[in-house]
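Page 47, continued from p. 46.
Same chain as before, 543 aa.
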Amino acid sequence: MNGSPANLPLIDVKGLRVAFGGKEVVHGIDFQIAAGEKLALVGESGSGKTVTALSLLRLVQNADVTGVARLFGGERTQDVRDLLSIPERQLRGIRGKEIAMIFQEPMTALNALYTVGDQIAEVLELHEGLSARAAQAAAVQLLADTGIPEPARRAQAFPHQLSGGQRQRAMIAMALACKPRLLLADEPTTALDVTVRAQILDLLADLQRKHGMAVLLITHDLNLVRRFADRVAVMENGHIVEHGAVAPVFDAPRHPYTRKLIDSHPERDVAAVPASGAAPVLEAKALRVIYPVPKPGIGGWFRKGEFVAVQGADFRIAPGETLGVVGESGSGKSTLALAALGLLRYQGALKVTGKDWAVDRASDLGLRRVMQVVFQDPFSSLSPRMTVEQIVGEGLRVHAPQLDAEARRARSLTALADVGLTEAQFPSLLDRYPHEFSGGQRQRLAIARALIVDPQLLVLDEPTSALDVTIQKQVLALLQRLQRERGLSYLLITHDVEVIRAMAHQVIVMKDGAILENGAVERVLDAPEHPYTKKLVAAALPE
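Result:
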């Protein structure tokens, strides 16, 4: 892989190998990135793309890394430094200053105990030698450059006080603080909704042009690659199997794995909602959710203000129907889901199979069997200390206490088989722990845990946003099959318009807690009426 002939390479990687405990996971790959160039490294989880990027800065613990990664230029234009062999002290001067990184999950990458302004200022004090006051002022300006509203106020916020898009912008501000020559961006938009994703992508492209930096983009989002990158390298099992300019690779892929990735888009395969006239599984009328918030000034000592997170929502979900809820971060869609699950106090009417939540454990127990939830990130929603048997069978201990251990074990195996996990594939399946499974397999465990109590409705909170395109397609196909076989209803919360298009019968579009548009999915997505819906749909389309 060669950089543009007009440009010398900024970084030249040859024979990069990474091994853990003697097992090699990256197998002697070569690539170059020219100054100002955007290279995308794509592939499924486990393909080695993130390990490759982290290895360039020697950030992979307990790894045996060999090969050459020559960084050209620097303070003296003739400098050539091998990142894999220079002393750690010299490498510390490169990290953050010449090569910066945006990590995949800003909530875990940012320090929860410090404000985002302090964390950005720390980089400037360390690498640029700025005073604390000057670094804070520069941090505010960097946040402003990323488009965060009220940057001075946001600089004083802690990570948990920002939305997902704002946290990602703060990470970008920190990465760009020292105007690096190379930016390593690891899945920078994976968990963001489509409009914020487009904004972050445009922001990166604008800053990349402004500063003339090179970008190594790690992603499984092929639409993002089409819109952003100059060249693409496709990784499978630690090998680069195809590379070249984006358009030729995507329009005429040569390798079967590249074709598989390109063909792995969500496909619609849902049955029509039965015209049974049955009562809705879930129905809301004038649903409002209000959070207390402190008032500014001395008045906040005595009285709280109010923030209306959901404003008078009306919807219904029939048996066997999927209602999709789409909107930006902060639109109220997750709050709506929590209220539907009986986990938040609400105003208005909310009925599950005709009954109101009592927000009381004993009274609500029956309704909790009717409605179960599958969360966005199975790695954090499954306890690492519990076995598969304990995780999947936990619901039976609560909702079917009459079953003995043997009966629970049998029901657990049946539920796991229903989602495609068997002991033939995984010996001693019930005795395994979540870390022994891939991301897609963990999500299947989460679905089995929800299904084991025979619910009528599943709340699906971004069920595929953390998954590769190929695994996403498999999980969606599984959910479609289960709906057809069991007559399940789904409340699908997602920022992915294509997932809505593949899964939903009805869709509601939310912004600032209000429903702006609703109706049949074909009508809303193919002929949107509200300007905001048009913006969402347009942001989801590849260029």
